[in-house]
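Lab notes, practical 5.
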Amino acid sequence: MRIVGAASEAEMVASFLVGELASERFGSTLALVLARSGHSTTLLTNANLSDPQENEQRRQLLGEFRGYRQNRELFEGFPDNVSWQHVLLSPSELLSVRYIDYSYWTALTAGTRRPTDAARFIRRGGLVFGRMPTGHFLTAAESLQAGLTCEPMMCVRSGAGRPLVVFEGHARLTAMALATECLPDEVPILLGTAAAISDWPCY
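Output from the prediction step:
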């Protein structure tokens, strides 16, 4: 792991929202939340991180959308004081990142939460819970192989040397595990560190 520099909470919030905007699963819901709040997608895609009002609007959006700073949904039990950094991971480090402790991702990996196990399951045509197809991950991997670029994923850890858990970008991580030949020598991510992360139920 190579540390590039510090990142702010405002940058994390903006990056999280931009990543989810492009998500097949969450994008439509986020678009509805944006419309209901009277904001356009440019609040996310053209974020001015030096504007306190904009930053607060995005914090509120993430709260409404996924429970940020409201102790609910993904952010139930998530600590407030997290130190964020831009870091670069080698391909082997990236493939050692774990999925969150959530039923879908544990089922996809037979409990290991490792993307390499997910890739094997997907290539076999496995069905999550015996009924949910996984072909969309292969489609995402094909997009990477065709040269598609995407937002850096986000990970968290409870301290130096502790396991990294993907916080936003599960589908991207899975696609990368299916298209390892496309991985660069260093993969950028946004990394959050806090001792209290160990108490987050998803960790």
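Observations recorded by the TA: The radius of gyration is 17 Å. The mean pLDDT is 95.
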